[in-house]
Specification:
By secondary structure, the chain is an all-alpha fold. The chain has one domain. It is built from nine helices and no strands. The longest helix is centred in the first third of the chain and has 29 residues. The protein is globular.
Length: 214
């Protein structure tokens, strides 16, 4: 009975912590939403996001969090690299907004042909792994909390986090499909790209500022 209770409480902890961190507007979520609206390799994007979350949380639970805490230089390099990526991503989104065609992206996509699965996943992998918030949230924060669980409870915690991640990205993909009619208007894409660009530039400034402050 104690084992079952420990397993359940660890699962709930993993699910709750992951859900509270993942439900926010970030580069990864915006990318998945955009792919869902376009109907382009959506299942592969959802699968990648869930698997990457599980792997990073598991690494944190297994000791990666302690290693990053022991080597602040490594964490600093990751942060600077992430800030540079966020800056580039934000500028690209603003450029896309400024130069957006009059036709909706779905029409342009039909003319130019769909993007390959590898190109879509490569961009998503870069957005995921070059974002320092991924390591702060999944590896450091969630990993350190999960490492405090006892015995098999650690992996129950990881399963709980995986459940929350899976639920969120499936709901995000479904929301993107529901919003297809809205994004038939090119102005909606301009607004999305504008919000994404400004948000990414602000994150880049905040991330870089955290390094300079140290």
């Amino acid at each position: 009975m104690d084992l079952t209770t420990n397993f359940s409480s660890a699962w709930i902890a993993g699910f709750t912590v992951c859900a509270s961190l993942i439900v926010s507007i970030g580069a990864q979520n915006m990318y998945v939403l955009r792919q869902a609206v376009q109907g382009e390799h959506v299942r592969a994007c959802v699968t990648w996001c869930v698997l990457s979350d599980v792997l990073l949380v598991a690494l944190g639970v297994a000791g990666m969090a302690q290693m990053l805490a022991s080597y602040p230089e490594l964490a600093q390099y990751l942060t600077l690299g992430g800030a540079a990526f966020l800056l580039a991503y934000g500028l690209f989104a603003l450029r896309r907004m400024w130069l957006a065609p009059d036709a909706a992206p779905q029409a342009e996509q039909r003319k130019s042909g769909p993007r390959s699965l590898m190109s879509v996943l490569a961009a998503l992998a870069a957005i995921t792994l070059l974002n320092p918030h991924v390591y702060l949230d999944t590896v450091l924060l969630m990993g350190s909390i999960g490492a405090q669980q006892q015995g098999a409870g650690r992996w129950s915690y990881v399963i709980g986090a995986a459940s929350a991640s899976c639920l969120w990205f499936v709901l995000l993909a479904l929301a993107g499909r529901r919003l297809k009619h809205l994004f038939a208007n090119p102005r909606a894409w301009r607004i999305m790209d504008g919000i994404t660009g400004v948000m990414m530039l602000c994150l880049a400034w905040w991330v870089a500022g955290s390094v300079w402050a140290d």
